[in-house]
Amino acid sequence: MPIIIKIKNKTNWTVAIILGLGLLMLSFIILIIITLTLMSLQAEGFYAVLSYVSSATPFAAFFILFLYFWLWNTFGKTILTIEPEQITVRYKNKLFTKPKIYLKKEINQFQVKDFQVEKYKLGTRYHFSLSGSTYSVILIQNGNETRIVDWITETKASEIVNEIKKMWS
Asked: Cα–Cα distance between 34 and 50 in angstroms, integer?
């Protein structure tokens, strides 16, 4: 019987409101302004369709980009399905992602890691969180670290790691 753990993203309301307004504005531009502009040009037939598509494409690209970030920020969830021989990581409400499957035989261990200070080749990045949500659940495969759940509290990360270890021990 698989164990399913759902972890809701912490919503950044500033980003959610700004991107929501951006989505509304882009929808207005695509549906109203471009349509009215093309109707004023008196274009007919195939030229009208081609003109509409060519002028709406950049706005549609930004709409999809904004939608990607807005959906994940506002409604995103990480769903871990822990089975006896594998872990499946699904990102609900994140566009263009497919589930990732990690086999038990390929995983060396699970850890909780604090990413408040991240060191890179070119420097250091500091992450500040009033709620303490700077921890991640990572798995180690052949010396490589892979984050499976990001930006949660230490207690939640420890609970997830303990649940995985309990299932696999």
From this structure: 12
Apex 106 CA angle, 3 and 89, nearest 5: 40
User: What is the spatial distance between Cα 55 and Cα 65, in angstroms, rounded to a whole number?
Assistant: 17
Tell me the pLDDT tens digit for each residue of 91-132.
Answer: 999 999 999 999 999 999 999 999 888 888 888 988 877 777
Coil, strand, or helix at residue 77?
A: strand
Residues 6 or more apart from 158 whose CB is under 8 A from it? 112
Q: Which residue has the tokens 């949660």?
A: 152
Name the pairing type of β-strands 100-103 and 109-114: unpaired
State the residue for tokens 């807005």.
70
Residue 128 DSSP SS3: coil
Beta carbons within 8 Å of 125's beta carbon, 6+ residues apart: 117, 118
